[in-house]
Give the backbone structure.
Amino acid sequence: MDTSFRSRGADDLAYCARSAPALMVFVGTGGPVSLHRPRFLPDDGPVGQVAAVMLAGYLDAKRSWRADSGSADRRTGRGDQEIPVL
């Protein structure tokens, strides 16, 4: 993990994250073609690994939410927070 990298895109993400959980991930950005270029295409391996980790996290959170929600409404759960249903 390179913590020295800075991005102005984080400002936009921070704005959006005020109303919903957010995560910024740069996958495959260390190659010879830089981000925002037509030829930029990260390797499938790292993209697949990140997708698998994010899916596992989502499924674990959903499992935890279901265990905690008891007989609560399936779409709204706790308060106004909506949990996506697969």
Q: What stands out?
A: The chain has two helices and no strands. The chain has a mean pLDDT of 77.
